[in-house]
Amino acid sequence: MVDRKRAEMRRTTAAELATIKKNPALISLMATLTVLASLDNEMQIQLVAMLVIVAQRPGVYQRDMDGLSGFSQSSVSRNVHALSRYRRDGLPGFGLVEQRPDAKDVRSQRLFLTVAGVAFVSRPVEAGTDPQPAQAMPKPAIDAFAGTHWEVWVD
């Protein structure tokens, strides 16, 4: 089975590799990942998902986050606390999201980006929409592909 898969595998050509390296979506993704890594180079994708949902839906109820994200309510709670000023264990959080009680029902929490959260979320957008050519992009966005071995599976 493994030998058959290896036989189906081929290396990318130089032209394909050049096309992959110049792909604007990949360059934008690398710029965004570089910004996320500046906050925490081991940030979990769940934290990123929570941050994106709160950024897209300011004032979202925390109780609705499990349906929007697909994560369990306990995961939502843990990640929202990690994005807040303090995590549940009392250690410092990222300070990007704040919980506010709802005006009609103080038991319900609404989620908003903090000033730092708005500034942080704005950084990837600016880096990803920069109209400069690929060679003028920040060094991590281009060097992220240096020394990468590319292989493509062909069926």
Write down the oligomeric state.
Answer: single chain
Low-confidence stretches: 130-145
Task: Quickly give the structural class.
Answer: mainly alpha
Just give the CATH class.
Answer: Mainly Alpha
Order of helix and strand elements from N to C terminus: HEHHHEHHEEHHE
**Helix coverage percent of residues?**
40-55%
**Integer count of domains:** 1
Assigned CATH architecture: Orthogonal Bundle
Beta-strand portion reads 5-15%
Protein name: MarR family transcriptional regulator
Organism: Devosia psychrophila
InterPro entries: WH-like_DNA-bd_sf, WH_DNA-bd_sf
Could you characterize the architecture of this molecule?
It is a single chain. The chain is mainly α. It has a single domain, classed as Arc Repressor Mutant, subunit A. It is built from 8 helices and 5 strands; from the N terminus they run H-E-H-H-H-E-H-H-E-E-H-H-E. The protein has helices spanning 2-8, 14-21, 24-39, 45-56, 65-69, 73-83, 115-128, 139-143; strands at residues 9-11, 60-61, 97-101, 109-113, 151-153. Helix 3 (24-39) runs antiparallel to helix 7 and helix 4 (45-56) packs across helix 6. The longest helix has 16 residues, at 24-39. InterPro entries: WH-like_DNA-bd_sf, WH_DNA-bd_sf.
